[in-house]
Specification:
By secondary structure, the chain is α+β, with helices and mostly antiparallel strands. The chain has eight helices and seven strands, in the order ααβββαβααβαββαα. The longest helix has about 30 residues.
């Protein structure tokens, strides 16, 4: 069965959520996979907490260790605040579930995420959002501007991909791969934001900085371009180098562990 047929069949067979039992996978998958599931579920809950979600749309993914390049996506019919470690759907590189599941996945999410997971060994996690500020900057002719420290820390690591419609055409994967190159983030023109990372935490911290930079840019431009204070010559380049060194450390040792604690305080059910 092909990916489209599987999705159509899944849509036809969807059961009411009230009738679906989600058995815990803790102890049924290896420790490495369970940790990735918990981290990714926490990221979904944190996206919802920060108000970055878009109903059931947009998607975060993480690759499962192994030669198969299986990766986890959210169930398409769950809100982000409902996602748990055990409800995440493991799919193969054809977008088909690896194991029986009562859920379906977002076909556009598969197109975008499979492209980057296949092409980039370092892209263990991929995150894509449709926030108003991210979409606004993606529609700005000059993209992300060096207006704030937050923007300057990541701006040199941001790629751009032109809009081609809802990302369900698998042919777009080649262009996504070519456009992102070795960058850690990308603005999907007229669409939204995207980040990658060697871990869920790294991708999330990069996403946080990108989203905050976009929000600050829209707020700054709302006062009119004539009122902007541009940074001194050379300072954006210096800050970019500092960002390359600091973001990875912040993700691994500082900010992501703190965010995990926050997720547990908000609602520990994500880790089930």
């Amino acid at each position: 069965m092909g990916r489209v047929d599987a999705i159509n069949r899944g849509m036809a067979e969807l059961a009411p959520l009230s009738s679906i039992e989600i058995p815990s996978l803790e102890g049924k998958v290896d420790e490495a996979e369970w940790k990735i599931r918990v981290d990714l579920a926490a990221a979904y809950r944190l996206v919802a907490h920060y108000g970055w979600d878009d109903l059931i749309f947009t998607h975060l993914s993480a690759r499962i260790p192994g030669p198969e390049h299986h990766f986890l996506l959210n169930p398409y019919n769950l809100m982000f605040e409902e996602v748990t470690a055990s409800s995440l759907v493991k799919v193969d590189m054809d977008g088909l579930p690896v194991e029986p599941t009562p859920f379906i996945t977002n076909p556009a999410g598969f197109t975008i995420h499979s492209a980057i997971h296949m092409a980039r060994e370092d892209a263990q996690a991929v995150m894509h959002l449709h926030t108003p500020h991210g979409q606004a900057v993606s529609a700005h002719a000059e993209g992300l501007l060096p207006l704030t420290q937050t923007a300057m820390l990541i701006r040199e690591d941001v790629a751009y991909h032109d809009y081609e419609g809802v990302a369900v055409d698998l042919d777009e994967r080649e262009r996504l791969i070519a456009d992102i190159g070795d960058k850690g983030a990308m603005l999907l023109r007229n669409h939204g934001t995207l980040t990658v990372g060697e871990t869920v935490g790294e991708a999330f911290i990069r996403l946080y900085f990108l989203e905050r930079a976009c929000q600050a840019q829209i707020l700054a431009l709302s006062a009119g371009e004539g009122h902007l204070n541009n940074p001194p010559q050379g300072s954006p380049e210096v800050t970019a180098q500092q960002g390359k060194m600091g973001l990875k450390m912040a993700a691994g040792a500082l900010a992501w562990p703190a965010l995990l604690r926050k997720a547990y305080r908000l609602d520990p059910s994500f880790a089930t």
